[in-house]
Design a protein that fits this description.
Blueprint (H helix, E strand, L loop, with lengths): L1 E7 L4 E8 L2 E5 L6 H10 L2 E6 L11 H8 L3 E3 L10 E2 L5 E4 L2 E7 L8 E6 L5 E7 L14 H4 L3 H16 L7 E4 L17 E2 H7 L8 H9 L9 H10 L4 H8 L2 E2 L1 H10 L3 E4 L3 H4 L8 E2 L6 H9 L6 E4 L5 H10 L5 E5 L2 H7 L9 E2 L1 H7 L7 E3 L3 H6 L1 E2 L3 E2 L5 H4 L9 E4 L4 H12 L5 E4 L2 H5 L6 E2 L5
Parallel strand pairs: 3-4, 4-5, 5-6, 10-11, 13-17, 14-15, 14-16, 16-17, 18-23, 19-21, 19-22, 22-23
Antiparallel strand pairs: 1-2, 2-3, 7-8, 8-9, 9-10, 11-12, 20-24
Helix pairs in contact: 4-6, 8-12
Length: 465
């Protein structure tokens, strides 16, 4: 028996590869399927089943491409209604993988079709659960994402999740291993641990959701403090349920190399967004006018989803030379398939062609300290509320990056302001969006609050009751 967790940090997502006696199963595969095919070929096994724990919202699964490539059927839990051929398992239905058995445990609550897969080893002993978004380490799946589809309130779904956990998961032995679909950083929960594997006994002790004294307290605990889900989530659900272009097609289109003149022509002829995936340090020194910067060296895919939102948005790419394929792959993971091509030679080719170049005004924390006047300097902090409350520049306004379209209109274009996040990644995203919309009356602070906090500028914490 072999169980491999294939963890993708950018999405905080875990897929699983299981083999036994010449057969394999994949659980919640990512969009690019070659890694699974390579593993199976290396191990000399045949992929027999592809298990989906639910219709994912935060990423596009590779189930369709993998099934087409291998002939393995896709398995969903009860009540799932995909618009393609699949096995819809009944509750407690068992599937054999070599000498192993995988048992479907229907656990509605996060979504109606949510299913945990219990693996029994060669001796028939309960070995582990692939818990999907039903149970995370330190948390449980948020119960507000499926409200519209289920015609239920988040409280009703939370109650259903409580029942599922207590009837299907809590009775399992403490030594059963928990393999969740996500870890810390995912928007599918609010209190996940950084660890990606644990035993169920420890989760029974430390997971706040599993330690509520009543159904009512559980409902309150898991629904309290939920932030709004990213707007692209429903679009990813639809892609996972209805189908999508093959990954090879997306890659082929995105890898179309465009000269600066061709790039400019396509940009002018379409409503394509110019997405620059270089680092903030490179971007601010020069970029194609109106480009938006979301760096590959960060939480790229989630921020693309949060900022661009519409998965049907046409995109033109500017990357570091050699990073085009990685950018296309990571965009496809969250359903952004409409990539029209990339700037061949990167920004250097654009610059050498003599075309217009734009820049962002970026200053150091020391420069900011020299210019800061308490009570007079306008500062916009785009970090999350919890970050802001833990410490911020005196007098700063907290305008979170994810809400930029809500607060942007309130900016006075004649009043200069300073812009920062924690380290500079998010504030450069904000700066590029602002400048693309015509705002140029700001200075972005290199190093963000991490650098500012080391200066003599007064900092305060928000007092909470």
């Amino acid at each position: 028996m072999k169980i491999e967790q294939i963890y993708t940090g950018c999405l905080a997502q875990g897929a699983y590869y299981i083999t036994s006696n010449g057969e394999a199963a994949i659980i919640d595969p990512l969009r690019e399927i070659q890694p699974y095919l390579d593993r199976a070929e290396k191990d000399g096994v045949k992929i027999k089943y592809i298990f989906e724990t639910h219709f994912h919202a935060d990423f596009v699964s590779g189930h369709l491409d993998l099934s087409k490539s291998t002939g393995a059927p896709i398995v969903y839990g009860p009540t799932a209604q995909p618009e393609f051929d699949a096995i819809i398992a009944t509750d407690n239905q068992e599937f054999k993988i070599g000498n192993l058995v995988i048992k479907a445990l229907h656990t509605p609550g996060h979504t109606m079709e949510s299913t945990v897969y219990l693996l029994k080893d060669e001796a028939g002993k309960d070995h582990c659960i692939f818990s999907g978004d039903t149970l995370f380490l330190g948390d449980v799946g948020r119960p507000d994402l499926a409200q519209k589809a289920a015609h239920m309130t988040q409280e009703e779904l939370a109650g259903m999740l409580y029942d599922s956990l207590n009837s299907k998961i809590m009775p399992l032995a403490d030594d059963v291993i928990v393999y969740p679909a996500h870890g810390a950083g995912s928007a599918c929960g609010k209190n996940m641990m950084k660890e990606t594997v644990d035993d169920l006994g420890n989760q029974k002790k430390i997971n706040y959701a599993l330690n509520q004294p009543s159904r009512e307290s559980f409902i309150h605990a898991v629904t309290d403090g939920l932030s709004a889900p990213p707007a692209y989530f429903p679009m990813n659900v639809a892609l996972n349920k209805k189908g999508y272009s093959t990954f090879d097609e997306v890659m082929s289109n995105g890898m179309k190399a465009l000269t600066p003149c061709e790039f400019e022509t396509v940009a002018e002829a379409t409503d394509a967004l110019i997405l620059d995936t270089r680092s903030a340090a490179e971007f601010h020194n020069g970029f194609v006018p109106n480009a938006v910067n979301i760096g590959l060296n960060g939480d790229f895919a989630p921020w693309v989803g949060a900022m661009i939102v519409d998965v049907n948005q046409k995109i033109l790419l500017v990357t570091e030379p050699g990073k085009e394929q990685e950018a296309i792959t990571r965009l496809s993971r969250v359903g952004f398939d409409q990539i029209l091509g990339h700037l061949t030679g990167g920004f250097s080719a654009w610059q050498q062609s003599g075309k217009d170049v734009d820049t962002i005004v970026r200053i150091t924390a020391s420069q900011f300290e020299g210019e800061f006047i308490a009570g007079k300097t306008k500062v916009l902090d785009v970090r999350k509320c919890s970050e802001f409350e833990s410490g911020h520049v005196e007098g700063a306004e907290n305008n979170t990056l994810s809400d930029i379209n809500l607060w942007m209109a309130s900016i006075d274009p004649k009043e200069h302001f300073y812009l920062h996040c924690q380290g500079g990644y998010r504030s450069m995203i904000a700066a590029s969006i602002l400048q693309a919309r015509g705002y140029r009356n700001f200075s972005e602070i290199e190093g963000g609050y991490g650098a500012i906090s080391k200066t003599g500028i007064p900092a305060v914490k928000t007092q909470t009751a």
